[in-house]
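WARN retry 2 of 3 for item q-0093 after timeout on previous attempt; input resubmitted unchanged.
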Amino acid sequence: MALTLYVDTARWRAHQHTVVEQFPGLVPVCKGNGYGFGHERLADEATRLKSDMLAVGTTYEAARTKDFFSGDLLVLTPYRLGEEPVPLPDRAIRSVSSVEGVRGLVGARVVIEVMSSMRRHGVAEDDLGKLHAAIDDVRLEGFAIHLPLDRADGSDAVEEVFSWMERLRTARLPLHTMFVSHLKATEQAALQQQFPQTRFRARIGTRLWLGDHDATEYRGAVLDVTRIAKGERYGYRQEKAAADGHLVVVAGGTSHGVGLEAPKALHGLMPRAKGVARAGLATVNRNLSPFVWAGKQRWFAEPPHMQVSILFLPGDVAPPAVGDELVAHLRHTTTQFDRLVDRAPTA
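OK item q-0093 returned
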């Protein structure tokens, strides 16, 4: 009995090809938990897409992925002086976000990140002049800019990249390749037209692997179903049942990422009000689970256990049978499945 990720493989791959066609030179991103699929699976998919480069999050991920992917490995986390050395092949490319970092990677292949409106990391405009001497000692693969997802101030993504391209050109730095993130296909095409001598390469993960929500589905298997009467105690904390119903034990607990949720940005009055309501219910141990039965997400009977969750079904709802599977609305980037099942041939 398992928490299973089902993949409509034909549909999933068709979406991948659509994205690749929209972004010439696309670099697939495989970081974290491999967007819920795992590094080995996504490395295989990148090979199927005939990608010459795969972006990973850290040097540790690069070390794990190098045996699954034969092309170049772009490490997205910037190099820092004094970091723990991790043995990597020459096909590994390091991101760098400072002049000092470039100087610390003599002989290495590097991509230099510039400071965008994300304000996360990157070389500042004032430091561009210092890069001339530094890049002579490395193998420069290009520059990169990581853009924000939302632009509340109404600013323009193309204009931001254009401005940086002009700064790099004014500083007489090579513009043969620019790695970009979070651009629309039309925006990348516009930049390519403005800078025909530069190769723009979009680093894409979420849109590539998770862009078609209906291509994947998590399901947790039902392990046990127990009738419970109002007032009877149950669970680790021996809470009293508030009403007659059933306790449903389903595969999927904290070790899978169930009950763990990344913070979400709330825009507008209604989403904020719902967030406050959920927080209020949580204070009295009322938390909505990601598992669906009879058309509704069901409440946790108590916080999820390590490998299973216990749900409460009211007495007027017919319970599932042991062995049934409940759809689970889980976030791919925080979920670890027990098994992955392809619903279509992999060939």
